[in-house]
């Protein structure tokens, strides 16, 4: 009987620690984050935007996507591998050749914005991107904070975009 009481107390302490950890993580992990990255691309702005706008070919150079459904010229849906839901994108600003902006949403979990600014250089362009998101709910922001590095994802996306653009020149 004494062993059962000790075991119950240990289980109670363990559950309390888990609850405290979730509450602490929910308070400490930011719900909104933003990342800015820059990359040199040896191609004119028109070629960069051509690759960015050819959404049906994204799975060819973005290996984490299984498919893309283009709804119309301003809206599309991306299906990332190992994701519970697709990402729904909307082109919110098209100020080419200098700038484009997209908004995106994954169900009720989070939404975000991507901005790309292109400036000419001697050998092509400099692409400056800003990715930002807002997680909805405590568990979503904990999971995103623990398992998803948007800054690394954005850098990898920019590098892969650079490779694709320079390959198609």
In short:
This protein has helices spanning 2-28, 45-53, 58-61, 138-147, 150-168; strands at 32-41, 65-72, 75-80, 87-95, 99-106, 110-120, 125-135. With 169 residues, the protein is of the alpha+beta class. The protein has a single domain (31-168), classed as 2-Layer Sandwich (Alpha-D-Glucose-1,6-Bisphosphate, Chain A, domain 4).
Key phrases:
169 residues, alpha+beta, Alpha-D-Glucose-1,6-Bisphosphate, Chain A, domain 4, seven-stranded antiparallel β-sheet, 5 helices, 7 strands
Question: How does this structure look, described?
Answer:
The structure is a single chain. The protein is an alpha+beta fold. The protein has one domain: Alpha-D-Glucose-1,6-Bisphosphate, Chain A, domain 4, CATH 3.30.530.20. It has 5 helices and 7 strands. The protein has a 7-stranded antiparallel β-sheet. The longest helix is centred in the N-terminal third of the chain and has 27 residues, at 2-28. The model has no long low-confidence stretch (mean pLDDT 87).
For the secondary structure, the number of strands is 7
Q: What global shape is seen?
A: elongated
Number of structurally distinct domains: 1
> Structural class given helices, strands, pairing?
alpha+beta
Please report the number of helical segments.
5
Q: How much is the average pLDDT?
A: 87
Q: Which spans have pLDDT < 50 for at least 5 consecutive residues?
A: none
CATH superfamily: START domain
Strand-residue fraction? 35-45%
Give, in spatial order, the strands making up the sheet with the most strands: 1-7-6-5-4-3-2
Helix content: 40-55%
Largest sheet: 7 strands, antiparallel
Instruction: Please name the CATH topology.
Output: Alpha-D-Glucose-1,6-Bisphosphate, Chain A, domain 4
Radius of gyration, taken over Cα atoms and rounded to an integer in Å: 21 Å
**Tell me, what is the CATH class?**
Alpha Beta
